[in-house]
């Protein structure tokens, strides 16, 4: 079978010119033809591939002649270093599949990439489905304002009468982080929060640590929310209901609903958010009216002595009060689903909500209920306040609202690909959902339902995520300063915010040392799974070593070898703007240190051939020789420019996911926002 191209193309390597036309000509010295060609597309527009010419130092295979023709290489201008026992072979311009085996010799290919333009109607539909200000606010807002339902009691337990002051300090610290999140979100408007930020500024391993902490934070969030929901349900709606078993049941119910394909709706979240804000506002108004008639409870509470001393009470109240802003990080995890300019508004709206409600509810609790009552009923303190100030109807309303809002737990995951297996009937990920239920239930059982310990684990996880976000902002300023952003927060604000988070983290550990024990157990388990995924090829090779010369090698060894080959075959792509050898080498080093692959493509997108950097081919050839364990190919892409549509189309042609595509740090002249490139990663300065 042969294919004929309609035209020929000239290439030059180290000053030596070669012509590749129809039929394609490959100069070979015992080299496998399939090792020099790859399927990079189809159609008459594609140009034949150009080999980077024999690798004498690598494993070779004899190649049969298609037509048995031989010709003197000297007449074709072969370079001296490649002369020898050469044969000219006619081969198809494009081979159908990527080569198998141990051949690592790089190749060069030139492909057209002219994606079909989307109509304005399609673009408008995509934009119309994105979240506006209030729907986006409601999703994260339900999380952060649900914290108001238990933070007043927890802060009073730790800070006594100084709880409102502690909660006001928390609001001030959150204002600092509002700027931190805005800068990172405008520079990297991609889902993933601290994980995405650190992935684009550090290594994949450090980014995965952030992912582990985020997942642990969501795990603790689900447990604390479920336990608090059942506490309110038992107190105001169903007297005597078992909070312990109710918590496990509610976690199981939500797991079952997710398995059936029922997920959170932005419209439903907005309705719940409006009802919740209305309930909190009504409670504040009723409590203030009650307190204005009789100040004696507030006076009595304020006259009580400090738990330790003023500074200590305010500090530990602040550490516990940080639970009142959990959920602030949530908005960054769905930033791509928000319309342009909405993300900063969601942060502003959430900050206003907690800055008003948290200190105010802490003060109103002290003005209507005695401190011993607040401590005794800390799990459902706002229902107690509602019952005292408004009667049974307000007690029931607050309890119903709390049960509804606190049951809105979020499921998330950052684990291996096999966990993302989807149920074909429901389109859900059963391994994630069932695993999440098992983890949350076991955490609740291990701490025996102790809300203080649960809150401590929750706080440590959340504060770790917030601290890493601040560190990510610092690294973004230092290592990705060229990246365009709409807002820049000052260094002093970032460092102050980070300092307050570290102080809160330390305070939660000191206040209850058991917190760090349970946190360490679950964090180490989660991190171990991630580390196994990072080193799985080495682990599999160790298993193969011990299986060698045993009967099991015949049955298991073959499967393990196929898995290792499958892992190593995953291609990664680096888009090179220039032929800067130092930049290209940094990209290669990043791939070697962070990816489990033996295949890398360096792509250059150009409009005219004059734009192709003159030494790009030579430098790629140098890198291919320098790193024999990594096959490095060069792909030149003839396209309209380096646009998101071109990258998406190229990902389909090369069969490479866009999150395995890398670039150097873009500048002000970058054609589009980085988020439109589908998770493409920034790996060098």
From TrEMBL:
Keyword tags: Membrane, Transmembrane, Transmembrane helix
Give a GO cellular-component term: membrane
Region Disordered: which residues? Answer: 49-77
Q: How does it sit in the membrane?
A: Multi-pass membrane protein
> Can you say where in the cell this protein is located?
Membrane
* Membrane-spanning residues: 149-177, 198-221, 241-261, 268-290, 349-376, 396-419, 431-451, 457-476, 488-510, 516-534
Key word Ribonucleoprotein present: no
Q: Does the keyword Membrane apply?
A: yes
Q: Which GO terms describe its molecular function?
A: amino acid transmembrane transporter activity
Q: Which domain of life is it from?
A: Eukaryota
In which residue ranges is the amino acid composition biased (Basic and acidic residues)? 63-72
Q: Name one Pfam family in it.
A: AA_permease_2
Q: Per its UniProt record, what PANTHER family does this chain match?
A: AMINO ACID PERMEASE_ SLC12A DOMAIN-CONTAINING PROTEIN, INNER MEMBRANE TRANSPORTER YGJI-RELATED
* Protein name (record): Amino acid permease
Q: Which organism is it from?
A: Acanthamoeba castellanii (strain ATCC 30010 / Neff)
